[in-house]
Design goal:
The complex is a heterodimer. In chain A, 86% of the residues lie in helices and 0% in strands. Chain A is mainly α. By secondary structure, chain B is mostly helical. Classes of the chains: A mainly alpha, B mainly alpha.
């Protein structure tokens, strides 16, 4: 039973996080920051979409740079 | 059929081809080295599990969740898949990672299968589990891609048709050739599909943030669906910039030889 649970967990870890957990972290952070600004009324809903897209781009670039710098 | 529908069919087709080529490589490696009975049993079990997963996930997504919740769940998953593919494509295009080679993957899988040893039972559990996992994992990705493309274009049959044609063609080619499909330009396909997934994923995940608002309504991008095209351009331009810039960020390797010698 424990083996099954571990295997099940490993499957979903591989499925969602894949080879690089930093990508998933970048997506969650970018969406989280956008949501926080949206809920605090710092952004209108339309501005939040543009900000969210930009935040995802910035977070992806950051994860790529960290990836390359660490692997060197 | 409109241009948008052809685009939808094409996107689902390409994504499906990429995923099924990977699954086929694993299945062939297990079948050739461990025997076809247990391998095909693993494939059949994965197909049954996939049908069940699709039925349950499809029913749950369409019945229980508001549209914005569906968008944030599927959009976020799609975004993560797409950016993982884009990351690999960028690293490969910039020479920081070797190109994915189905022949190499096939060799690695067959070597692992040989080293696993006999299981001593009628059903070879190693071949069964590896084939099941390979087909189910790649299949679930296809299911999410089809759901997203189908729902965003409001044409699920076209998305299912595109993915089915892709899967059938890979299956026919695999049965006919009996070896990994090395001639499929997988890296280029992954780059293109990665861009599509990243664009659709960004659009959906951000729209889905509306589920946390009081009215639970999806957020609206400026320009509505045209924003997907703008996002596609942004991700493409960004990927080209990263391909040219990232190699310069890699620190030069430090030559440890003299230090190692002095220690000795």
């Amino acid at each position: 039973m424990i083996r099954f649970v571990k295997g099940f967990g490993q499957f979903w870890y591989d499925f969602v996080l894949g080879d690089d957990w930093k990508i998933a972290a970048a997506v969650v952070i970018a969406l989280g920051v956008t949501l926080a600004l949206l809920l605090s009324d710092a952004l209108s809903t339309t501005a939040a979409t543009v900000f969210g897209g930009a935040a995802l781009v910035v977070a992806f670039v950051a994860s790529m740079v960290i990836d390359v710098r660490r692997s060197s | 059929m409109s241009g948008a529908t052809w685009g939808l069919v094409g996107a689902a087709f390409l994504a499906s081809v990429v995923e099924f080529v990977e699954a086929l490589t694993i299945v062939l490696a297990m079948g050739m080295t461990r025997g076809w009975r247990s391998t095909l049993a693993g494939v059949a079990a994965a197909v049954v599990a996939l049908i069940g997963f699709t039925a349950v996930a499809g029913y749950a997504l369409s019945s229980w969740l508001p549209e914005s919740a569906l968008q944030i769940v599927v959009g976020t998953l799609l975004l993560i898949f797409g950016l993982q593919w884009l990351r690999k494509a960028i690293l490969r295009s910039s020479g920081l990672k070797s190109l994915h080679d189905e022949e190499e993957e096939y060799r690695a899988q067959t070597e692992a299968a040989r080293q696993a040893g006999a299981t001593g039972t009628r059903l070879d559990s190693f071949a069964f589990v590896v084939a099941f996992k390979g087909v189910f994992l790649e299949g679930v990705e296809v299911v999410f891609i089809v759901i997203t493309f189908g729902l965003s274009a409001d044409n699920m049959p076209a998305a299912v048709a595109g993915a089915s044609i892709g899967g059938a063609l890979v299956l026919i080619a695999g049965v006919a050739l009996h070896r990994p499909l090395t001639t499929v330009p997988e890296n280029t396909l992954k780059y293109g599909v990665g861009l599509l997934l990243a664009s659709f994923g960004t659009f959906w995940a951000v729209e889905g943030l509306g589920v946390f608002m009081d009215d639970h309504e999806s957020l609206e991008w400026p320009g509505s669906d045209l924003a997907i095209v703008a996002l596609l351009v942004v991700w493409f331009v960004l990927s080209r910039v990263l391909v040219s810039v990232l190699p310069n960020l890699k620190r030069p390797a430090v030559d440890l030889q003299p230090q190692e010698e002095s220690v000795r």
